[in-house]
Design a protein that fits this description.
By secondary structure, the protein is mainly beta. The protein contains 5 helices and 27 strands. The strands form 6 sheets. Strands 5-4-7-12-9-10 form a 6-stranded mixed sheet, with no helix packed on it. The longest helix has 11 residues. The two termini are 13 Å apart.
Length: 489
């Protein structure tokens, strides 16, 4: 088991970051490990979760960071704050599901339902009597702290007859977005103001998938907002009008509104130029089948399903990369992760390509960055093996500026001219649109070993991961902290 504080930057302290075989080796049964959590600039909603295969499906929870003493929110103080955790519900053992999938080389089973604060809602008979309910007073404003802890799907989320005002993403405030729905990716958090300005009654909260693949959980999870007071409750409360499962226009229209406050009280420092640009293709791939019986795996074309970044499918080493880097242990990782795709083709073309493009290469390759390097990463989606979908990409140890996105193939000459370098949102998880690209910028000023991965957990298990190693700066205050304890491997 490992625990990760999603979105907590942990300055100079990757020793308590958590991902297996990157920041630490597993905590052995019966053993223990004490994490040191260092908050810096974060304010708002984050979350913690296990970071070993699919254990985070059930091992997770909110982290709520209030304004510093003597300061206030950039909006009127809400009446009450309400955490809302969206999660996956499986009838089977989640660890058995992913373990069996990796053993056979095929895809894992989809979740059987989604939940709101632990309950699927009345669309599932087992939850109809115990669905989550919130009793709210009319004429008040509430702060909903929404977390997408779902394993595999982005979600549309809405409340019937109510407007949502999004004021924060990933523990950073943004210019308010008034909307009838949100699209939230796994890993993301959103702070949302809800004003109870409707007639006293019951109103459904609902969420369902935004998905671009064949196999996904198509269940709708529900909860109820129940106004306080004396009135006759409706037998059928109104449901919100959620976008369809494949409504890319709705997802894009929402995410295109992300803007930082960029004020004197909440300044930003987006790099206007960069020292290093990295272009990363994100692809569904295969690896050769290694089953010893009939040589046929359960993945595409009888091979083993995989995923890659720049055609490298990440392989966990035998000891953690942080320890190997710190102690100078050779042979654990290599520093040759390509900064551009080594295979250049029409990434969004008709999906069925030859083995040259569908087969990934295994490796534990990392990118080395000098301290204070200004970095741009362009995530380029691909349609290899008809595997194009919206990828939520997450970087540990950093928040980054979301400076641009588009559909089709990123043009290194012309697309940067359309970047938002005035008020881009500062986030830690970015959705890369289906058959499109997203660009982020940040300054590499947090020394350490930091995991970067797709937050669709099948993709993480299949290898859509890599590692950034940021070297020490010139002083002790800009260098990796000394560990108090290294978990044994």
């Amino acid at each position: 088991m490992y625990k990760f504080r999603h979105g907590v930057k942990q300055p100079r302290n990757p020793w308590s970051d958590g991902p297996e075989y990157v920041a630490q080796c597993p905590i052995k049964p019966g053993a223990n490990f004490t994490y040191e959590i260092i908050l810096s600039e974060e304010e708002g909603t984050l979350w913690w979760h296990a970071h070993s295969d699919w254990t985070r499906a059930t091992v997770h929870g909110p982290i709520i960071i209030k304004p510093r003493n003597g300061t206030t929110y950039p909006f009127a103080k809400p009446t009450v704050e309400i955490p809302i955790v969206l999660a996956s519900w499986f009838k089977g053992d989640v660890m058995e599901i992913i373990t069996n999938a990796l053993a056979t080389g095929g895809p894992p089973s989809s979740a059987d339902a989604f939940t709101i604060n632990g309950q699927p809602g009345d669309t599932q008979s087992c939850s109809s009597q115990n669905m989550t309910k919130f009793e709210l007073d009319q004429g008040k404003t509430y702060l909903l702290r929404v977390i997408n802890a779902v394993i595999e799907e982005e979600l549309f989320f809405a409340i019937a007859n109510h407007t949502l005002t999004v004021v924060g993403i990933d523990a950073w405030y943004i210019k308010p977005i008034n909307t009838s729905y949100i699209m939230i990716t796994p890993g993301q958090t959103m702070d949302i103001l809800l004003t109870t300005n409707q007639s006293p009654s019951h109103y459904y909260i609902a969420a369902r998938a935004y998905a671009q693949i064949i196999a996904f959980c198509n269940a709708t999870t529900t909860a109820i907002i129940r106004y306080s007071g004396n009135y006759t409750a409706p037998t059928s409360p109104p449901l919100p009008d959620l976008p369809s499962y494949t409504d890319t226009d709705a997802a894009t229209a929402f995410t295109n509104q992300f803007r930082a406050l960029a004020s004197n009280k909440y300044p930003i420092d987006v790099p206007q130029s960069v020292d290093k640009r990295i272009i990363m293709t994100l692809s569904f791939k295969t690896l050769p089948c290694d089953l010893k019986n009939n040589g046929t795996c359960a993945g595409v074309n009888g091979q083993r399903d995989a995923a890659s970044m720049n055609n490298i499918s990440f392989v966990n080493p035998s000891i953690d990369i942080l320890q190997a880097y710190y102690k100078g242990i050779k042979g654990v990782f290599t520093t040759d992760f390509p900064s551009k795709p080594e295979q250049v083709f029409n990434y969004t073309m008709d999906p069925m390509l030859g083995n040259r493009y569908t087969m990934a290469s295994n490796g534990t390759k990392v990118t080395m960055l000098d301290y204070n390097t200004t970095v741009e990463i362009v995530f380029q989606g691909t349609n290899v093996l008809n595997g194009s979908e919206n990828h939520p990409m997450h970087l540990h140890g950093y928040s980054f500026y979301y400076v641009g996105s588009g559909f089709g193939i990123f043009n290194e000459s012309s697309d940067p001219s359309g970047y938002n370098l005035v008020d881009p949102a500062l986030i830690n998880t970015v959705g890369v649109p289906k058959n499109g690209w997203s660009a982020i910028r940040f300054k590499a000023n947090n020394p350490g070993v930091w995991f970067m991965h797709c937050h669709l957990d099948a993709h993480t298990s299949w290898g859509m991961d890599t590692v950034l190693i940021v070297k020490n700066g010139p002083t002790e205050a800009t260098s990796l902290r000394q560990p108090t304890y290294i978990n044994p491997c």
